[in-house]
Amino acid sequence: MGLLIDLCFFLSADTIANTEEQVIYLIVFHVFFFMFIWSYWKTIISKPASPSKEFCLPKADKELYEKEEFPEAQQEILKRVARNLPVYTRTGSGAIRYCDRCQLIKPDRCHHCSTCDRCVLKMDHHCPWVNNCVGFSNYKFFVLFLAYSMLYCVYIAATVLQYFIKFWTNHLPDTHAKFHVLFLFFVAGMFFISILSLFSYHLWLVGKNRTTIEAFRAPVFRNGPDKNGFTLGFLKNVTQVFGDQKKCWCLPLYSSLGDGYTFPTRLVNADSEQGNVEHQVIKCTVDGQTNPRPLSESQNHLLGNNMHSEEQKDSSPANIEVCQPVSITMENES
């Protein structure tokens, strides 16, 4: 990175005669560079959010679970505990998702990272380039890091392009800046192409409200797998990641909606095995701040009255259970 900055300074001094043009180029360059470093730093230092102790088995149930030798009996213990938790996704076989390593019931969209050796809320992937898990607490920062790194490369390639053309047409002054022009253009171009593909993919994931894990393996609900289970519509999907204040979308400041434990869904039928889950308070620590909030707060905030207009035309009791957020209060009919 230091070499790239030195090359840019040498290039501007040797090839750009207009002082005002040099100043403008350097100001814009440093704006993109600052935003790139800021978002990159936030992605690195943001500690991955993990499930709270509410998702751990009580001591008595944990002892019973460890003593049981049959998976069926262990599942019955997990089902009994999960009745009081806002957990609606299952394994591929329909079992409760339990992490033997962390010894807790996994919240929806939570997965265990073998590299970090911990369960991460809304885990997307473990990124070696930032040496951190990308998940609920820093996914916005990661997307902004890709965006600003791409803009950084585009800006460098665009400002060097005219001098790159002069280089090939032998109209560039015979100075050591020739090497700088060639090097900067090709390096910026190659990085731009590679980052563009990754950035486009994650924009697609944001628009679909999926993680990288969910894109390869659809989340499983009690009524089966549904790759669009968490899709709320493009704008609401973007709002879940970037927040409802558009002025903060381009800044690497935490503004994502929700608590990381429960998520509104596109279509989930009431779970007959689920007990009462009503406004449990779980403390979620994100970006250095502990924020206790009701589990249903983010769902009610996201799901407006116009979310599913077609489904709301019929308000008969038979259709009340359709298109409800996953954190609603549900009574066992039996």
TrEMBL record:
<comment type="similarity">
    <text>Belongs to the DHHC palmitoyltransferase family.</text>
</comment>
<dbReference type="GO" id="GO:0019706">
    <property type="term" value="F:protein-cysteine S-palmitoyltransferase activity"/>
</dbReference>
<feature type="transmembrane region" description="Helical">
    <location>
        <begin position="23"/>
        <end position="41"/>
    </location>
</feature>
<keyword id="KW-0012">Acyltransferase</keyword>
<dbReference type="GO" id="GO:0016020">
    <property type="term" value="C:membrane"/>
</dbReference>
<keyword id="KW-0812">Transmembrane</keyword>
<dbReference type="InterPro" id="IPR039859">
    <property type="entry name" value="PFA4/ZDH16/20/ERF2-like"/>
</dbReference>
<keyword id="KW-0472">Membrane</keyword>
<protein>
    <recommendedName>
        <fullName>Palmitoyltransferase</fullName>
        <ecNumber>2.3.1.225</ecNumber>
    </recommendedName>
</protein>
<feature type="domain" description="Palmitoyltransferase DHHC">
    <location>
        <begin position="96"/>
        <end position="216"/>
    </location>
</feature>
<feature type="transmembrane region" description="Helical">
    <location>
        <begin position="141"/>
        <end position="165"/>
    </location>
</feature>
<keyword id="KW-1133">Transmembrane helix</keyword>
<keyword id="KW-0808">Transferase</keyword>
<feature type="transmembrane region" description="Helical">
    <location>
        <begin position="177"/>
        <end position="201"/>
    </location>
</feature>
<dbReference type="Pfam" id="PF01529">
    <property type="entry name" value="DHHC"/>
</dbReference>
<dbReference type="InterPro" id="IPR001594">
    <property type="entry name" value="Palmitoyltrfase_DHHC"/>
</dbReference>
